[in-house]
Amino acid sequence: MIAFGIAVIAAVHAPQALAWHDDGHRIVGEIAERNLSPATRAKVRALLQGSDGKGDGSLATASIWADHEARESPEFAFAASSHYVNLDGPTSPRELHAQCLERAGCLATAVPYYADILRSEGASEDQRAEALRFLVHFVGDAHQPLHAGRRGDRGGNDIDRLTIPGYTAKGETTNLHAAWDGALVALALTERGVDWKAYAVALDAGIDADARARWVGGTIYDWLEESRRFAAAEAYLHVDGLTPVRSGDTLGADWYRRNSSTAEQRLSQAGVRLAALLEAIFEDA
Length: 285
Hints:
Layout: H1 21-34, H2 38-49, H3 59-62, H4 93-102, H5 107-119, H6 125-142, H7 176-192, H8 196-205, H9 209-215, H10 220-235, H11 253-282
Helix pairs in contact: 1-6, 1-7, 1-8, 1-11, 5-6, 6-11, 7-11, 10-11
């Protein structure tokens, strides 16, 4: 599947708040933009370009803002807990909402919050553009299984010292959370010999009409429960589906093959659902 010894991609030791790394988020944004109607796409681009027209207006570019400019600014320190939620089992919307309020917010509260700002007639254009940048990022976050991972290991962050041939550089290791954030996408790009945009185009082309129809709908609670189930059934396990991944393990080609289709599905679902959410928000704007 992959020439694991040929291309070595430097490992990224991601903190818990990062998801999909930049390329994964760009892929979600690109898929979403490809699923927007021309009218909504024009409104989104105009909002992201701003009054000075300097931005490129793309959802792909907007998708990484929350992990870079926002993360580097003390002004947005409040949003750190909004990138993830830890779930140890099925949780009702009421229970999850209460849990999020206890820790100054989480993904379950962030997505509807920024969606409300984006549709608000009282919000300024700058506030709506900021909300859109957060929203495109957080919808992507919600679909990374370990962003709804277990509390005890901080969504896989504490399962560390992992070696991934073809991803971790010689002498470097990573953790399970970061493996899902970055390795599965990076290895897919290496295998195919393409960049993130070509990969996004291919993923979008592979989504059939039935899948699109099934994926549209649901709420942030549904999406997070999906991620929690994927994490429990796949993300924490080796290829046999029984043995837990433990600190110090090596995740090889069989691990990639077992999990790459799930990663592709979650990226695709995030893009399709983001597009549907933006269509609903901008319908009357």
